[in-house]
TrEMBL record:
Subcellular location: Vacuole membrane
Membrane topology qualifier: Multi-pass membrane protein
PROSITE patterns per record: MIP (PS00221)
Gene3D superfamilies attached to this UniProt entry: Glycerol uptake facilitator protein (1.20.1080.10)
Annotated source species: Fraxinus pennsylvanica
Protein name, UniProt field: Aquaporin TIP3-1
Function: Channel protein in tonoplast. These proteins may allow the diffusion of amino acids and/or peptides from the vacuolar compartment to the cytoplasm.
Primary localisation category: membrane
């Protein structure tokens, strides 16, 4: 494999650090999806209206920002605080996590999202999770581009504040910066694509609510956006600022 990339050592598969990091991703994704999707269901319960008004959009953006801040902050020192398969993919493309660790994270994130959606359905007396779908009058390819751009902004922010080895004290505000960009992106993309930026956030509610309309957009868009951000930041910013004699090595969550 290219320098800086690794599948993962055999001992990593059963190492306690891997188990702790995977559990952290599972729990933090559960917390985020429960609050994010829960805010959508709460508004539907209160207003009985399928139209997303300006005030509702602000409430949903705020719920996502606050819950993601908590989820990232509570798991950053253990797993790196990805809480998103697209963020993990961006880190993988940049050689910052091993393939094995990425697979563990993806499984944990998806399971956390599914359990969050199940708990929401039970706690709301059977309300069907809504998940994401492309808004009426918006084309699928338009929504795909929206998800690409929004996720690019998210993962670029993650790289700059949480992954960059030279981030310094900026790392202390990483959860806040990440929460801010997600909240802002929801305000921008919510009326068009729903502004998922996160395949796990889309998957759990889609499975439990059995709503698969346009679901492919919420996988392909975030993964493309994350890959672009990972490549541009890793090789255009970090590597460009690294002496040629310095060998790049993939980071573990302990390095974040």
């Amino acid at each position: 494999m290219p320098r800086g990339y690794t599948f993962g050592r055999a001992e990593e598969a059963t190492h306690p650090d891997s188990a702790r990091a995977t559990l952290a991703e599972f729990l933090s994704t559960l917390v985020f999806v429960f609050a994010g999707e829960g805010s959508v269901l709460a508004l539907a319960k209160m207003y009985k209206d399928t139209t997303l008004g300006a005030s509702s959009l602000v409430v949903i953006a705020l719920a996502h920002a606050l819950s993601l801040f908590a989820a990232v902050a509570s798991s950053m020192n253990v797993s790196g605080g990805h809480v998103n398969p697209a963020v993990t993919f961006g880190a993988l493309v940049g050689g910052r996590v091993s393939v094995l660790r990425a697979i563990y994270y993806w499984i944990a994130q998806l399971l956390g999202s599914v359990l969050a959606a199940i708990l929401l359905r039970l706690a709301t007396d059977g309300l069907r999770p809504r998940g994401f779908s492309v808004a009426d009058g918006v084309g699928e390819w338009n929504a795909l581009l929206m998800e690409i751009v929004l996720t690019f902004g998210l993962v670029y922010t993650v790289y700059a504040t949480a992954i960059d080895p030279k981030r310094g004290s900026l790392g202390t505000i990483a959860p806040l910066a990440i929460a801010f960009i997600v909240g802002a992106n929801v305000l921008v993309g919510g009326p068009f694509s729903g502004a998922s930026m996160n395949p796990a956030r889309a998957f759990g509610p889609a499975l439990v609510g059995w709503r698969w309309r346009n679901h492919w957009v919420y996988w392909l868009g975030p993964f493309i956006g994350a890959a672009l951000a990972g490549v541009i930041y890793e090789f255009g910013v970090i590597q460009a600022d690294t002496p040629h004699h310095t060998h790049h090595q993939p980071l573990t969550p302990e390095d974040y």
